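Request: How about a record?
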Amino acid sequence: MIERETMTPGAYVRGIGVLGPGIADWPSAAALLKGERPYAPAPTEAPPPAALPAAERRRTGATVRLALAAGLEALADAGLDAGARALATVFASSSGDGAICHEICSALASPERQISPTRFHNSVHNAASGYWSIALRDMAPSTALSAYDGSFAAGLIEALAQSGASGAPVLLIAYDTDYPEPLRAKRPMAGSFAAALLLDPRSSAGAHARLEVRLARDAADPLPEAPLEALRAGIPAARSLPLLKLISRRDSGCALLDYLEDLRLAVNVSPCP
């Protein structure tokens, strides 16, 4: 049974960014989700963030590059440039930078036990948020959160709540990267994936859809295509795919997303003209 009451004020999706295995950007994701092309898995390629100064760019790992690429695409899709310096952000990741965690654990297990300062400051969960503020000179508030496999849904709730309270746009960036072994045996992921939504409480020309959310106890929506379902189930940030599918098809409907153990997030989608 789905609860009737919405949890937060609704918002319009002004911009979208997507990057994942075999998915280069939002247009390619939309074509895939609309059935216009078959899914061809390939390693996720996150470009170096050109918006960062050269010294900072060299220090970024795959996780930061992934998050910034999706976020910058969402801004471009909304018709905004990288000079948006007063945009609140919500960064959602189930576990942060697994490769950095692996390197730090390996260093601590070595006889020298010396940790690189660069690796250490990149290990914190809000590293992507920090690099975003440097790249865009964005002085607005930023939130970094984690809710295990429900991190995308938790980030969406937070971004919608902030947008409704402030009356201003909020950018949600959800992202996850794989762990190296032996950590991967304990926390396997099917690759690296990021999805970004620029949410605005005000309607605007070119908006993709309007979203409203509520809690539900029904099962989360699977994807009928086996390769895409493996992607959805295998990467927490990719739990966004049923929602992105509705948006890409310009369908009205409800996407049920993984959230808590006994609760899902029901996202009502209304396409914009």
In short: The chain has ten helices and eight strands. The CA atoms of residues 150 and 259 lie 4 Å apart. The mean pLDDT is 91. The domain at 14-207 is CATH 3.40.47.10 (Peroxisomal Thiolase; Chain A, domain 1).
